[in-house]
Batch of 3 targets.
Target 1
Amino acid sequence: MNYRIVKAEPSQAEVLAELINQHELKIDPTSTSIGVEESTEIIEGFFDPAISAFMYSDGVEEPSAFYSVNPDANRKRLFTDVYARPGSNLIKDALVESLKAAAVEFPEYEHWFGVNTKDIAMRESLESLGMQVIRTYWHMKRDLAATDSVPNSRPEVSIRLVSGDQDVQTWWKLHQDSFSNHFGFAPRPMELWIEQTKAASTMDPEACFILEFEGEPAGFIQLANANYHLNGGYVDVLGVAHKYQGKGLGQILLQHGINHSIEQGREFIELNVDSGNESGALRLYEKLGFKPNSSWEQYENKNWVEFARGL
């Protein structure tokens, strides 16, 4: 099939959101549609500047497909997303183009692809390119009502909004400690972590909180604006330092996220969880009423560069 490739710009975030939603909702009508903030982040890059491009079929004015290769220099890893309009038949072509572009710019990096488990065409294309599943994640959701708000009743626990440089540094320390044993984690220098966190287009600075236990920082919760276009909340990251795990603080933090979303008038709240997470996160989410809404898988080919150069 003949097509042309054009670099994607942040100003085209709305165009991308429309394309992604066509792709995802065709596969799974229950999927949550994405908004401009999230599609902007996909174009720009989650950590470092991304290779993002639209693909235009001959004779078609609107883009038929899109790929984004998101590098993370700190972990030497690429995260690639591919989408195509239903009926365009460009899924495999977009995957191939993303591999070629990545092999030129980042041949020394690992390369991971994310895909909805219901996306049979994408999965078959990935597997034809030598990719294998390395991890499965669940997307979870719960509806909200005013009666779901539960105040913190433990006097030894307090929660405050992140405010000022000292709080941001404390937040970084808690994040690095909490996730140090998680799959795919790599330590991130404080200055770099702060820069990337603040630059994220989905960050809501009025929805990031630190929990203290007996006067000491013990955990945090970071909510995002990814679902605001649907009047929904989103738990981006939640963590409890290892020293304080097993004290029920994760439940208090998640309930605080629920309370905050209710105060903002949100109608639902969502999050993602690694199905292989051994910290008990999945049990906690289910306990507080979250239910699996969809799932997605991470694919990898250890020899992706050699494979890409042979395409």
Note: The longest strand covers residues 132-143.
Target 2
Amino acid sequence: MGSNPNGATSPGARPIQPLRELLVAVGEAVANLNTTVVGLDAVERGHEKPETLNISWNPQDRVAAARKSRRFVLEAVLVRVAEALSEFVTATAQLPRFSSVRSRWDSNTTRADKLADVAAELLGSGNHLVAGAALLVHWRNRAVHPRSRASLTPQQMRNLRSASAEIDSSFAGLSVDRLLNDFEIGHPTLKDISSLIAMSIRMAREMDKAVNFLSKDELDILLEYYGLTARISEINAQTTPCKRQASVLRLLQSSAPGLMEAYSRLQPSAARHGE
């Protein structure tokens, strides 16, 4: 299973590659969202278009225009984060422990279903963070496909509602009832989307903790998934034994730093073996 003998991750364990990539993608999306929200606030307050900005912009109602743009940006961020979440799930699901989960998937299995399946395998089917992340993916689907009726399962709905008090406390007064109502009417608020992103990241961190200590087989699978197996083979063929590990670690540092710990632990340097 790729875990420590006592079932815990190593002290001070760093995120492996799937989580690292998710954090980078979501961090960029949130930073851009925040910058845009600040700019739109300036529009609402009367900021004029600079003469050097060569665009056509003269809304009749500045406040309405800014708020319409905010909704557009929120939906764009939903798409970006949902895509990053799906990639995180796809990469994580490559590990052997999820083979039985993958075997149940077919062409009709949605991204939200895959997320829920993989996350539930690690965190349990009653986890409200999983329901929050699934809701984010469904919201993305409704934003992209206006006729979509993608929605939570009854169990996921119960998971969110039963955790209402905890969610209110953990996410600055977020109301589950209002969140679900905003989802149904298709009017995302900044608080809705920021909270769902935070839930998704917390879920992903918990999942990473559960799979963080990779086995040799798991490392090999992720190296192949990220297209690094062939590149490492080239290094091994072209580099002297005593320099191979350092060369591979440089490659991982630039391409997949989330696999460096496992490679260092599972691929002892040639020098230690007297090569």
Note: The radius of gyration is 22 Å.
Target 3
Amino acid sequence: MSTRPYLVLALGIVAVSSSAFLITFARQEGVPAVAIAALRLSFASLVLAPIAVTRARDEWRRLAPRDLALAIASGFLLALHFAFWISSLDYTSVMSSIVLVSTNPFFVALASVWLLRESLHRGTVVGILIAVAGGALVALTDLGQGGTESLQGDALAVAGAVTVSGYLVIGRVLRRKLSLVGYIGLVYSTAAIVLLVLAWVMNARLTGYSTKSYALIVLLAAGPQLIGHSAYNWALKYVSATFVTITVLAEPIGATLLAIPILAQVPPPIKLIGGALILVGIYFAARQEAVSSEQSTVNSGQ
């Protein structure tokens, strides 16, 4: 198991990196953001359902009420993550959206202070300050280029980062008790139901779109969801949620580079600097959290 989690995470990053472009193309076909999210999770859940029911039925029966509640909460957070993040792509650039949604290690660190009563280490604080400075540069650049609309997109991306942080933290807890299929079977189906209800409330239709639209959403379900997110959830059993968030930092770099030839979105130098600062800050903070976790494990074993 020494190298397998890292190889699986690498596969997940490659799969998830295509998400923003598939979503952008689906939005260009006229599919609302909430409809894309609902159909993405619904397609993934339908593919997964026969396997999950067959293999994980006994696991679900033995699941404690608290753990079942956590799995439902994880699915709810995943649904909100997609609703927020996909919507952000309507208002801001791919680079801004993906960089800001990748700030989840920052929120994991804050959760450890507020919820777990853990103290922040010096490296974590330094990383947070660097990331905040980078975020300010991105926000100021967006304000100058796109006005308040771009800032709305930035805020939605940050909301996506907050919700996906909770999803990953809960996944780290439950993957110690549930198989991959047992866990994602519950979480993906819960997220699909939440998003379908949200689409109904928002009067976002799910039918009547072009064949190309549905093909793009099927690719979203197959690649970024069933391969990408499932790879992250598989790895959570073997490595910390903090380490997973560190590896996910590779996604915005690749996506930003791909956005230049595919979407003709060339970020200005100041925004590149801001994005780089955010990634550097998150890396410092997440690396400190990972080192602290390893030291705690060593000390507890002595």
Note: Residues 4-296 form one domain.
